[in-house]
Amino acid sequence: xxxxxxxxxxxxxxxxxxxxxxxxxxxxxxxxxxxxxxxxxxxxxxxxxxxxxxxxxxxxxxxxxxxxxxxxxxxxxxxx
Length: 80
Fold this sequence. Notes:
The chain is built from 2 helices and 6 strands, in the order H-H-E-E-E-E-E-E. The chain is of the alpha+beta class. Helix 1 crosses helix 2. The longest helix has 20 residues, at 21-40. It is elongated and about 55 Å long.
């Protein structure tokens, strides 16, 4: 399940009406930046009741372009 930042901010503002929206936005930015930095270091992030994020290496593979069926080489990469 994917979550959009705007929906996350809306839910936070509903649950915490005493906080200003700009403060909640700054809070969300700080948290998301820390998650990104942790994943870049190759570490695992666990937020209880929300989710677990980790990176792994995806092997190089040959796949198909769904538009024209042409074979495409996808190089190895890190995925979340």
